[in-house]
């Protein structure tokens, strides 16, 4: 028989009617639209409607620098929500929507796992309510309008070689990375080189996640820059000038409404947006949090990758837009990750874990603990109280958990073991208590940098204080872009550094907390619609390829018509 | 003040709760999943559930050969449904889902108009429940798996130049018609030339529309041919061999469920699938009709373009798959269309109608009546009773309506004037009575050809008997393909002739009922998954371009956040 699979656990769960889940959040049925069983969209009028209710404690879930396998941040977010409920507190969680491309292209579905899942799992992992597709449609409409503008005489004087707006699809499709369009006859358009990114990498997705209202979305979409006019002017050309932003907004009007689902233990789960974690914020939407913040005692929201990545953007980009102030931050830590940070082990996605990694070895855990210490510091930099959550795996040894507890204790940080994967909320009550205590401490939240510090200064602050670099080196193109952006009046935008999530540094092979290095900025780009500047450090892949044995080759329906192989 | 716009009429309408609409069809709430206000998906279990209820009269709505403006077939379908209800009969209508590409790219939304609309109009014209996007995702997953197969050593021996599976997007984007993919470095795939079609042109869409169950869909998807192995074998390579069909089915499992909406007068409207009308059937789904046929006294279903196109496929492809037998066929006729068929007038999409076309002139109507006569014959060829519906326009003159009535009378066909656009169901009661009488006549439905007649014989039967050609000429490539397909065992598939919808002939400039011509077949392709062979006669555009003043440039939100400019 063995352990039941995540899919079996998910199928055996009892969903509450979603309007009951919403009712517990204070959301009346006039604010809900059902989208299939167990899923509803929440109208943004909920933000106003709930405004008089008490504010929840706001908890962000981050992590140490992860291995390529991920350290269970989503699972911990779900487990913590369930754990808070088990201890008599009303919690709401907020997570990102999974991307269809990687779900089918590499690893199969994921939205937590074991006894900490968001359900209905199949809906969540496939189309959900179509938000990803709406982003795809809005993004590609703008692309078609750009190319049609070139085709119809190019009145705005766009330089074809400087069109930065690509196309997107939510599929892992390597051959679309670099393409030539517009071949064929004269009426088939103007040939030029371009490509597709995955939908999660779309600036439209980043914009949707950072918008505070339909009107705000409309204005941000209008500011999107698709390219530049011919030199020497190099004037930015916007979606507004192409008359695309109105239709893009209308295409996104339902996608702007957060989706409400529930965990296996009926904790409300707002699932909304899924921007990339390197070239964008890696955070779920501002509007979901603006609703969730008045819908319970605790709002637990997830930020992608390690604390240097998602949490830093959570603090300096997302909270700046939302005006919300975090009360505590969870740092998900695994024995496995710290062992890898010792530099003595290596894990590769898609291959079995090496046996020596699983042998009892608290020394290796301690040897990798500098990463945890640095990420604790990164939370504290923002005046927020961290809590270390040890995400327990069956292959862990108690001595290794003790090693992590010791590191946390030395740093003066609360630490809790969490077995939510195997046990659901019951396994996360220690963590829930620790988080509740931390959130009750007097807060001193602060941004890392002021917006008027200048682009270089802001980049350098993140690089030195958060990543531990000695400084920043700009390639000539990057330096030129920064000068140009400041002249264009974009100097006051916040920064989203696009770098690897596999190291605190920009070199994915460096483990622990690397020192004695400088951050090389190869290139700088502007997401003016979403509202940030992103320096690019290293190769950022924005269109994955299918894996050598993708989940898509194993998913099917069985004789009863049920889905198999997704999870 | 003037006449209210279609959008204003739509906004002012009172929607019934969709579960009440479903209840009147005999659909219990266990068969429904709400997808936002006023929209529900219907579970395919409804086919079994309703099987014991009496069978509705089955009415297909077709038309004379249309002008580029269309002659109001959808509006008439909706109006007739409302008219049947007004005369005390319970009607259900079935229509196709509009395509986002043309809606935004050229003309704005459409799902009827005036007082004959399906609502909620915005949902219908934009994403609805995401079915189009699901087709896009399933289609493009297969494309990615094809290219990944080439990239990873091409074990099946696919000839890259003979890969016929392209990609799709629901956008009007001319530069995607002909592209080169796989540029960049080695890990970016194998370069080759290909392109995108609009989603409505996807074989996945055609397959979804012709499937009778989830299992049938699974099997059809597995049979999809993506290309051929190297010569001389030229063996077809299928989605099954690429291990893609299971995941494609799972991606489409919700899209296979028909969408239930309602008309302005609360007539149930099943909206499902939107396959192209030239290279595919141009008919809404089989499963929608299998549900609707037991859900009222009348099921009114629409078939795309003129009776030579959509209705011929309705009879010989869709009814063959569904096993349903039509009781009557409506031929939508307009004064405008017959005047154009006289050869004395011309209309161009996007330009105002010429004044001389609007002057009273029953002689021109009579001069174009051969088209109507031929389309009446095309219905009768299948043993079905036709009814001529004059779709009234404000610019018509009574003498012109009389001219049409005279033509119908001479042909021995019932004829009714319908003012459903201006008056809703009240304006379609004469048509409703005529249709009810026609449907009560003893039926003699027959297929035009037997499946075992051989591919050439089947094509020639359609060309000579339906189109009025003297014969068929095959280009060498077409003849070669037909021979190859028969050797492969596909000779028993039915035929879907891809030709212009603007003429009974294959020359879009020929009006009326052209004689003395031969059908030139340039090329023949196989939709083995959907289950038909399609000879191509003339240029078939499968990816539209944006118009010079697309609707997308005018759609926006107003100060209240309401959508404007869509309609």
From TrEMBL, chains A, B:
Answer yes or no on keyword Transferase: no
The entry marks the following residues as binding ATP, namely 67-74
What EC numbers are recorded for this enzyme? 6.3.4.3
The annotated pathway is: One-carbon metabolism; tetrahydrofolate interconversion
Catalytic reaction(s) noted: (6S)-5,6,7,8-tetrahydrofolate + formate + ATP = (6R)-10-formyltetrahydrofolate + ADP + phosphate
Checking Pfam families in the record gives: FTHFS
Q: Which UniProt keywords apply?
A: ATP-binding, Ligase, Nucleotide-binding, One-carbon metabolism
Source superkingdom: Bacteria
Molecular-function GO term, any one = formate-tetrahydrofolate ligase activity
Q: Tell me the InterPro entries matching this sequence.
A: Formate_THF_ligase, Formate_THF_ligase_CS, P-loop_NTPase
Top EC category: ligase
Question: Is the Amino-acid biosynthesis keyword given for this protein?
Answer: no
UniProt record similarity statement: Belongs to the formate--tetrahydrofolate ligase family.
* Protein name per Swiss-Prot or TrEMBL: Formate--tetrahydrofolate ligase
């Amino acid at each position: 028989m063995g352990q039941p699979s995540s899919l079996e656990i998910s199928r055996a769960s009892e969903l509450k009617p979603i309007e009951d889940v919403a009712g517990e959040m204070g959301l009346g049925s006039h604010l809900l639209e059902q989208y299939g069983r167990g899923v509803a969209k929440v109208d943004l009028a909920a933000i106003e409607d709930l405004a008089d209710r008490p504010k929840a404690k706001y908890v962000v879930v981050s992590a140490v620098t992860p291995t390529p396998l991920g350290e269970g941040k989503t699972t911990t977010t779900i487990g913590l929500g369930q754990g808070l409920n088990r201890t008599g507190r009303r919690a709401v969680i907020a997570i990102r929507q999974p991307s269809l491309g990687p779900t089918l292209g590499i690893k199969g579905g994921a939205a937590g796992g074991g006894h900490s899942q968001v359900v209905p799992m199949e809906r969540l992992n496939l189309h959900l309510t179509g938000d990803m597709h709406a982003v795809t449609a809005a993004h590609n409409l703008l692309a078609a309008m750009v190319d049609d503008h070139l085709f119809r005489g190019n009145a705005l004087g766009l330089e074809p070689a400087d069109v930065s707006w690509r196309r997107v699809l939510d599929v892992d499709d390597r051959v679309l990375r670099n393409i030539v369009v517009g071949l064929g006859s004269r009426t088939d358009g103007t040939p030029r080189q371009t490509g597709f990114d995955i939908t999660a990498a779309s600036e439209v997705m980043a914009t949707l996640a950072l918008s505070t209202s339909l009107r705000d979305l409309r204005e941000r979409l209008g500011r999107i820059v698709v390219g530049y006019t011919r030199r020497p002017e190099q004037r930015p050309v916007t979606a507004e000038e192409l008359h695309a932003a109105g239709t893009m907004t209308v295409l996104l009007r339902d996608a702007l409404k957060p989706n409400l689902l529930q965990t296996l233990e009926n904790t409300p789960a707002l699932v909304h947006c899924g921007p990339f974690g390197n070239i964008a914020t890696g955070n779920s939407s501002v509007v979901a949090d603006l609703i969730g913040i008045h819908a319970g005692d605790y709002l637990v929201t997830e930020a992608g990758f390690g604390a240097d990545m998602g949490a830093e953007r959570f603090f300096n980009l997302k909270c700046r837009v939302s005006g919300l102030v975090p009360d505590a931050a969870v740092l998900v830590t695994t024995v496995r990750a710290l062992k890898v940070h010792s530099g003595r082990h290596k894990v590769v996605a898609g291959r079995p874990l090496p046996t020596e990694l699983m042998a009892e070895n608290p020394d290796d855990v301690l040897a990798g603990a500098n990463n945890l210490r640095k990420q604790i510091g990164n939370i504290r930099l923002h005046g927020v109280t961290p809590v270390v959550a040890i995400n327990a795996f069956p292959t862990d040894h108690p001595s290794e958990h003790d090693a992590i507890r010791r590191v946390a204790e030395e740093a003066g940080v609360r630490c809790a073991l969490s077995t939510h994967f195997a046990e659901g909320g019951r396994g996360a009550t220690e963590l829930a208590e620790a988080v509740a205590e931390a959130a009750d401490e007097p807060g001193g939240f602060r941004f890392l940098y002021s917006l008027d510090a200048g682009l270089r200064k802001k980049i350098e602050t993140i690089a030195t204080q958060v990543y531990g670099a000695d400084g920043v080196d700009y390639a000539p193109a990057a330096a030129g872009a920064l000068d140009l952006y400041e002249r264009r009046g974009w100097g006051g935008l916040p920064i989203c550094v696009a770098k690897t999530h596999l190291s605190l540094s920009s070199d994915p092979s460096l483990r622990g907390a690397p020192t004695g290095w400088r951050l090389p900025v190869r290139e700088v780009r502007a997401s003016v619609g979403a509202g940030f500047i992103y320096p690019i450090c290293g190769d950022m892949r924005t269109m994955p390829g299918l894996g050598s044995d993708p989940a898509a080759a194993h998913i099917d329906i069985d004789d009863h018509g049920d889905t198999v192989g997704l999870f």
